[in-house]
Amino acid sequence: MSPSCDQRHQFLTSYLINDSIAIDAGSLGISLDLAAQRKVKHVLLSHTHVDHTAALPMFLENSIDMAGTRVTIHGSDVVLDSLRQHVFNGCVWPDLVHEKLNSRPFFNLATLEAGRSLEIAGVRITPIAVHHKVPTMGFMLEEGDAAVILSIDTGPTEELWRRANALRRVDAVFLEATFPNSMDDLAQMTKHLTPRLFAQEVQKLSHPAKIIAIHIKPTCYEEVVAELQALGLPDLEIGLPGKEYCFV
Length: 248
Fold this sequence. Notes:
Blueprint lengths: L14 E3 L3 E3 L4 H4 L2 H4 L4 E3 L11 H7 L9 E4 L1 H11 L12 E2 L2 E2 L2 E4 L6 E3 L2 E8 L5 E8 L2 E5 L8 H7 L6 E5 L7 H7 L4 H8 L7 E5 L6 H9 L6 E3 L10
Parallel strand pairs: 2-3, 3-4, 4-7, 11-12, 12-13, 13-14
Antiparallel strand pairs: 1-2, 5-6, 8-9, 9-10, 10-11
């Protein structure tokens, strides 16, 4: 998550996992110092929207290693095609997909498939299709006995909860709450959640877990937070950009 003058506000989206894995790259190239960026070797992109991809080109430039391991960018076919056509197209940014550095690609591209797990640096990651305006994946992260769910951007969804309920335990769910209840029409049109819909989604989880609200629009932050807190949900936490969360 990106820092700002008001630390409560999340303008861009990135999640750093164990220093070496990033989920989304909205703020990845601007929110970490160079040493931290160079530790990240895998970036998994949930979808094409710019608040989740904006700082990817800067991150890749900052993480270039002339002799070492190249970063791998993971995404669905839709996401990877969007990067080729709309980002690394020689206009918005140099065509780093096809150009080479010392006869090697600047970075690697790998296809993510919904429901197909992969293991990176000891973390088992399962992308799960969610219900957003464009094809989008949430993520189930497992390491040792710990399991965390990242909803990313979604309206009411089902497969995410089916997968979560099949786990032995769930430590935390990072669940979006984008708009206040007064903007229900806009939330449904853009396939996001309001606090009312947030509560309905939480009821679909059969495990006790910490529920961390994310992706709250800065322009209506106070209203959304007040409505979330009024729900009286146990173990509800309002996500704080820049905060380190640990689950063991």
